[in-house]
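Note to self: user wants both folds in one dump. Writing first protein now.
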Amino acid sequence: MNNKQGLLVVVSSPSGGGKTTVIKKILETDPNNFIYSVSMTTRPKRAGETEGKDYFFVTLATFQEHIRSNDLIEYEKVHDWYYGTPKNALSAWIKQGKVVLLDLDVYGGLHLKQEYGNRCLLIFLKPPSLEELISRLRRRSTESDTQIKRRLERLPQEMALADKFDAIILNENLDQTVAQVIGLIAEKRKLK
C-alpha cells in the first residue's frame, strides 16, 4: 500500500458507535502502512487505556497551552472534556505514504477535511439502532446513566452531519465494517 501519497482516514460515529474497535482491527491487518494518530484529551483515563497508545491524557492547563502554541490541527469540547489532534506527525506520515487513522467526532473530522481536502477520507459509522447503541455504551461500564443520556443528546447533531462525510457505513458486523473501510481506503488511494 505504500506506493502512493499518504491519506488521513477519519472514522467517526456517535459514542459507542464502534469507531475505536474498527480502527484497532484495521491496524492489526497491516501495521506497517496503517498508523493510528493518538489524540490528546483532558478526560480521565478509563480502565485498560494506555497513555500514548489510546490517548495522551493531559490537564486542562496543558491542553490550553497546546491550543495557544498552535500544536493541534483540530480540537473540540465533547461531553465536558477536550479532545484534540496533535499536528506534528500528520504531515510527515502523509509524505511517507502512510494511511493515518483518526478516531474523531464529526466536527473534528469536518475540520480535518477542510484542512487536508482530498488527502482526507471521512467515514461515518452508523449504529444499527438506538437500542444497540445504548447497549454498547452500557457494556463499557465506564459511564453512569446520566452520562449515557448526555452522550445520546448529541446523537441528532452527529447523525445530521453524517451526510457531509464521504461514506456512511452501517456498523452491524465488525468484520464486514472493517472490510468496507479498507475497501474505501484502497479505492481512495487508487483515485489519487
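First done. Writing the second protein, which came from a different request thread.
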Amino acid sequence: MDMFAFAQKTDCIILAGGQGTRLFPLTQTRCKPAVCFGGTYRLIDIPLSHCLHVKLDSIFVITQYLASSLQQHIYETYHFDQFHKSNIQLLSPEETPTRKVWFKGTADSIRQNLEYFEASSAEYFLILSGDQLYNMDFNKLFAFAEESNADFIIAALSVEEQEAKRMGVLNISAEKEVLDFFEKPSDAITLKRFSQPTTLLSPKYLGSMGIYLCKREALFNLLKEEGDDFGRHLIPLQVNKGGTHCYQHDGYWEDIGTVLSYYQANLALTRENHLDTKPIFTTAQQLPSTLIRATRVIDSIIAQGSISEASQITNSVIGMRIKIGAGSVIESCVLVGNLSAFPSSSTLPQFCSIGKNCLLKKVIVDEHTIIGDNVTLTNPNAINHLDTFKDCGIYIRDGIIIITSGTKVPDGFTL
C-alpha cells in the first residue's frame, strides 16, 4: 500500500488559534501553540514535524489569538525553496463580504476559510490541533483510512476517567465504527454509558484526540450543518450520519491543557530516551555549545548557548541562552530561556539569567526573565494558587511557581 500516494491526495489543517486560558499565565503574551517546550521547541513544531515526516505537502495553519510570535516562528522555520513542493499557508481572521471577523470555534474556523479548501484538489483533509504532544505515525492512520473507506475518522486512545471528563468519548463496534459520541461527560450516568470492557479495576474510556481524517465531501457537507465546534456540535451529527470510524492510537499523547500537564510533560523528557528516529523540526539556532563550570548535573536537559556556574541542576529542563550564577541550585524546574535573541545593538538582555546563590524548586521561568542574587523560590507552604504578586509577574498555579516573560525578580526575593 503506497502511503506516499495517500499523503499526496491529503491536505492538512492545523487548528492553532487556541487561547489556552487554563495554561495562563504562560499564554499571557502568546497563543498556546507558540508556548515553548523541551528547551528548544514550540508546541506547533510537533504537528508540523509529523506532517513533514509523511510528506504532507499542503498544510494550512489557522491562527487567531495572539498569533504574532506563532506566525513569526513558522515563517522563520518552515520556509521551503523552489525545489520542494511543501507549502505552509497561514490563515487568520479577516473581514470580507462573506466572512465574519472572529472564529467562534474549531469548526467555524474551517468554515470561514472554506474557499481555500474548496480551491484545493485534496481528496482527504487531516485536521490536527496545534497544541498537543504526541508520537504518531500518520501512515498507519492513512492505511486505516484506505482499509475502512470511512467518510470520517476520529483518532482516539484509551484513557482513565479523569482524562475522559475533559475529552470527547466514543463507543465503537467490533468493526471500529463509531456508534455514539459525547463531548466532555461529567455525570456518572453518561460516563458509565461510555465505559469500555476491561479486566482492570478502574474503567477505561475511548477518548477523542481531536485528530480527524475525513473525505472531502464529508467535511464540506458537515460544515453546512449548524454549530461552531467539532466536539460539541458537529461530531455527534456526523456519527448519526454513519460512515464514521475510530482509529485507535496506542502511543504517546498528551493534551497540554493545564500548567501541571505542561510542567510534567517537560520533565518527562529528562526521564526517557528523547532521541527519536523522526526528529522534531524547529528554528535552526547558530549558537555555541553550552558551557558548564563546576556544576553537578543530574537527570536534566540543557540546551545550547547557555552558561552554568550553578552548584547543582537536578531533574530540570534548561532552555537556550540561560546564565545561572555560582552557588545556585535548580531542582525540578523548567527554565524556558530565550528562544529568540534581541539585536546585538539592543539594550535588552541577550540571556535569561538566574543570579548567584539562588534556590529554585518546582518553578517555571519564562522567556527574557532576570532573577537576582540570593532569590529563593520553593513554595514551602505548598500553596496551590496565588495571584498576590501578579503585578510583579509572579504566579502560582497547580503548586508550581511561574515567573512570566520579561519579569525581573529583585535580589533576596523569597516565595
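Dump finished. Worth passing along: The chain is about 20% helix and 30% strand.
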